Amino acid sequence: MDIKAAELPIDDKGNVYHLQLQPEELANKIIFVGDPARVGFFSQRFDHIEVKKENREIHTHTGIWKGKRISIISTGMGTDNIDIVFNELDALANIDLKARKPKERHHTLEIVRIGTCGMLQGDLPMHSFIAGRLCIGMDCLMHFYPYQERHPELLEDFRRHCQWQLPLTPYTGECDEDLLQRVAANYTQGITVTAPGFYGPQCRKLRLPLAQGDFVQRLLNRSFQGIPYTNLEMETAGIYGMGRALGHKTLSLNVGVANRATGEFSKGHNDALMQLFEEVVSRF
Q: What is the per-residue DSSP string for 107-158?
């Protein structure tokens, strides 16, 4: 089946439309960040940078770190951008862009997100390193694909404790176990809740009332079958859902910068982010 130009735009240089990358410019090991400024912040540790590309909020640096070839890519905020970035990464890896046909042999990418989050457990110290073992997606992205629900009991637990009434259906997912054990075995592990926004969807009430009420308060210090609800952010469920659907290994790691139980917010977390980055790429 040929993939039409309107389905997968490719420019006259052979770049996919949003990433502005060609297949050879992408490493097999990929770090996702949200903030474009973090791409250069992390890549300053590279021994050598081969590729620098920028298009809108999507910045990519591919280079060498102690013999490992790694791409760092900014996705911007939200799972809508994850949908764009993930599909184009998979196209670079698994579609013959000249023939516009899927390749016969599947190529698996390894993708680790390094971001920031709000913490749901009051005893977690500021700047804790948190690995999302499981996730809840409140963003609806995976309902646009034939996605099989992975953890119906977790979904029911979430809906019950949150007294869920909104006219949208959350979904669940999980990280790649191999990446979790290889990269993040010593970090706090738990359930990451992915929201489609920063304020209302994360129950931050400013001038507008909350239609669902403050369901975050109902998740504080809770666990499901011994696994704590650890954190709240905006990308993980899309990464896990798209990774599983497209056959790639994914893991989401976050530095806790807001404790929703105590009301504290970090006064500076760049050192913690750099420490997490260096630990991840050393184990990647």
A: ---EEEEEEEEEE--TTSPTT-EEEEEEEEE-S-GGGGS----S-HHHHHHH
